[in-house]
Amino acid sequence: MVNSCDSPDPCKPSRPRIVIALGDPAGIGAEVTLRALADPRTLAAGIDPADVVLVGCRRWLEQSYRQLRQHGGDPLVDPADLTVVDCPLAGPIEPGVSGSAAGAASFAWLGEAVALVQEQPGQVLVTAPIAKASWHAAGHRYPGQTERLAELAGIARASMLFTAVAPGGHWRLNTLLATTHIPLAEVPRQLTPELIEQQLDRLLGFCQRFQSRPRLVVAGLNPHAGEAGTLGREEQDWLVPCLKEWRARHPEVRLEGPLPPDTCWLEAGEAWRGAGTGADGYLALYHDQGLIPVKLLAFDAAVNTSLGLPFLRTSPDHGTAFAIAGQGVARPDSMIAALITAWQLG
């Protein structure tokens, strides 16, 4: 099906339709999407492929499907059975070889997907991975999809939160990044009390979906959280007072921090293995501070969720994987988690 505008079946329960932007055509976006939509875990969650709209090049998607079938492996959904908004590629793209043409395509596909989501409230967006270098080669100088989504939505900043359900389903790991795709040297300059307060508000709102009185933990910026100012002044000069003020405005929240970054997620590691329960939410002050523990614990299960947008967006927590693109070996686990999270939270 192409550009289907059929009304939903009135006999089916009202659920959000999922719009998927297929990412860099030289990467694994097509493979993980087609495998995820055929996976028993996705179907068991109640997601019918008929409820999904793909945004990308139909001819490329069908070619990818034929090539992947030759490799065997996990089942694939046939693109012929899916609704596809066809945005044709200007020319052929070789798996694993990205560049300006692939960057232009993935940039356009994301924009079209957002337009579809904004046209019909209640839809949710799932994005396959893109290559920032290819976007830049195509003239689109964005740090990543999150920043472009904020621009398309008309907001100043969207927040990146990574969420994953621990094995056994007893606990959910939630880590929000105060800053995202910026050089490490820029982090202290961009961190402000106003930013921390905004990010804590967003983290609280997300965690209250699951726990009315959540416990939140904030990591420090410096080693040992500054060690009383001997290893950095940011904590003493403004972060501790900022957290004290926020805590006073939210007496229902158990807020801890700033904690030493090297031990901040130890409790989360134990909880992930089933030994107790960690905090309901963690605030990391920069990209790798938060993503190192998330990916160590939950690489195949974590979902990148954008907060602050007028619609829900999720994404796998991995990249384009050019080195294995087109080989039929990409694991769809994180895309499955992204689809299920979007379906359940949308």
What features would you highlight for this structure?
Isopropylmalate Dehydrogenase; globular; 12 helices; 346 residues; 11-stranded mixed β-sheet; 2 domains; alpha/beta
Under CATH at level 1, the class of the largest domain stands as: Alpha Beta
Q: How do the helices and strands follow one another from N- to C-terminus?
A: EHHEHEHEHHEEHHEHEHEHEEH
Q: Looking at the structure, what is the overall shape? A: globular
Largest sheet descriptor:
11 strands, mixed
Textual characterization of the structure:
By secondary structure, the chain is of the alpha/beta class. The protein has 2 domains: 197 residues, Isopropylmalate Dehydrogenase; 148 residues, 3-Layer(aba) Sandwich (Isopropylmalate Dehydrogenase), CATH 3.40.718.10. It is built from 12 helices and 11 strands. It has an 11-stranded mixed beta sheet, sandwiched between helices. Helix 1 packs across helix 12 and helix 8 packs across helix 9. The longest helix is centred in the first third of the chain and has 20 residues.
Quick structural overview:
The protein has 346 residues and is of the alpha/beta class. It contains twelve helices and eleven strands.
Write the layout of secondary structure elements.
Blueprint: E1 18-21, H1 29-38, H2 40-44, E2 52-56, H3 58-71, E3 83-86, H4 100-119, E4 124-127, H5 132-137, H6 145-153, E5 159-165, E6 172-177, H7 187-190, H8 193-207, E7 215-219, H9 234-249, E8 254-259, H10 266-272, E9 281-284, H11 287-298, E10 303-307, E11 313-316, H12 333-345
Parallel strand pairs: 1-2, 1-4, 2-3, 4-11, 6-9, 7-8, 7-9
Antiparallel strand pairs: 5-6, 5-10, 10-11
